[in-house]
Amino acid sequence: METKNIILELRNRHGMSQEELAGKVFVTRQAVSRWETGETLPNTETLKLLSGIFDVSINTLLGSPRKLICQCCGMPLDDATTSKEPNGSFNEDYCKWCYADGNYTYHDMDDLINVCVKHMAGQGFTEEQARTYMEQTLPELGYWKQHKELEDGGKFEEFKAQLIDELNALNVKGMPKVEKLNALVGAYVNLAYPMPNGANVKFLDDNATYLGNQLEGEDGRCFGVLANADFLLVSTYGKDCADPQLIVYRKR
User: Fold this and answer.
1) 229 vs 35, 153, 166, 211, CA distance in Å?
2) What is the pLDDT of residues 153-179, one digit of tens each?
3) How confident is the model at residue 249 (pLDDT cuts 50, 70, 90)?
4) How far is Cα 251 from Cα 223, in angstroms, rounded to an integer?
């Protein structure tokens, strides 16, 4: 789809007139009309504004001329999986698992490979095939070619270590020791827990990224641990997240 059609479709989807959109991006109504007829294209700064208004990447606005992949894990990117900067603008180099809230979430290639292999195994890959593929792919990606320059002096790893210590200090009965935390998007871990009043309550933001892990319990149930700068959460659940039970939700 061409940019002219994309802007027209997005404007209509958001219920805006040409004049209303023009006011939001500080141009004339005639300028919006020329975009939608294909006479002209928005300039770079206007594309940034349109990206924020419509919540789509600039690449999408331009008709997806580039096939975006995460420069950390290699997964294909679309608007739903592309990361964002703290100010809400899209960062088209990374997925929201690998770059969240202005932080790179993986600093050890082996850790990332182990996480990816778990997700890829059984989805057309054997574990061995998945590991071989990731070991060949990651060193060629931009992040791993320059990750030493992108390091934050170890601050994020220190933060993860602090969260691990706090989770282990909860001394939850039967829960194995937490040794690693991975980046997890809220939508994939936002379980609804039954409350004493009979309601089922979710505690997470589907669009936020958290640090967490799944631990295998001795009775066949799993422990789920999640944390960020604001809270610690521990739960248990059965196969395929059945019968989730909240054990701890504590503000930090």
Assistant:
1) 43, 19, 12, 10
2) 778 889 999 999 999 999 999 999 999
3) very high
4) 19
243 DSSP assignment: S
Domain boundaries, the chain: 3-61, 82-150, 155-251
Count of all residues that appear for the chain in the document: 252
Fold of 3-61: 434 Repressor (Amino-terminal Domain) (1.10.260)
Record the tokens describing residue 19, joined without a space.
């004049």
Q: What is the pLDDT of residues 120-153, one digit of tens each?
A: 877 778 999 999 999 999 999 999 998 877 777 7
Structure tokens at 168: 């282990």
Task: Give the span between the Cα atoms of 213 and 158, in whole angstroms.
Answer: 17
Q: Smallest Cα–Cα separation from 38: which of 62, 10, 66?
A: 62
Burial class (CB in 10 A: 0-12, 13-18, 19+), 64: middle
Alpha-carbon Rg for the chain, nearest whole angstrom, is 22
9, 10, 13, 16 alpha-carbon torsion, rounded to 10°? -110
Q: How far apart are CA 65 and CA 110, in angstroms?
A: 32
CB atoms < 10 A from the CB of 120, how many?
Answer: 17
How far is 108 from 157, CA to CA, in rounded Å?
A: 10
